[in-house]
């Protein structure tokens, strides 16, 4: 499979801020797209420039084949983002995006780029495994899982045409996330801030704590009321947290 390394394909800048002292790269969840982070970009600009990652197979990249291997995605994104992370940078990833952000951070650190902070949201630690096989189930079961988690306006999934556009990328992302297994090796040297919802069916506090083992720096756990997409209801608080953590670098 040939995968583009053109940064303009992979990265969206909704509010360009070339003079910003800090950049925040945001990685979407399974089935998600760069536009999910538009409100984050609007809130943090111009002090922090937000770069939202757009995976193949969705929105303006719908004609491209989605990638169902998280390590392949991490390799490609490390190549793409190397030129975008020459200054102070932090990562934020939600759900599958948290695992992906961690793997890209590992690769960039191996090249000499250390993040300011790695924010991992709604995702268990890499060494904590659940044997999940939703990607192997039929379309109805896959869509039922998406509706159960409630990340988007799931009523749109009742439209047959939209389902046809969404399902290939969604199934591919679920496969990448569910088959991901941590590979021992150098982790990261930046602080990790983990964020979860207290009633998230996809991750518990016990599964989140081992993120502390993946960094040689500080670890912090923040818990909010809500489920897997707690951050939809607490967007303001999460954005303030990110802004506060990065403010010291944005002066």
From TrEMBL:
It comes from the Bacteria. Residues 25-246 form the Thioesterase TesA-like domain. Keywords: Hydrolase. SUPFAM superfamilies: alpha/beta-Hydrolases (SSF53474). GO terms for biological process: lipid biosynthetic process. One of its GO terms (molecular function) is hydrolase activity. Pfam families: Thioesterase. InterPro entries: AB_hydrolase_fold, TEII, TesA-like, Thioesterase. Belongs to the thioesterase family. PANTHER family: S-ACYL FATTY ACID SYNTHASE THIOESTERASE, MEDIUM CHAIN (PTHR11487:SF0), THIOESTERASE (PTHR11487). This is Thioesterase. It comes from Amycolatopsis vancoresmycina DSM 44592.
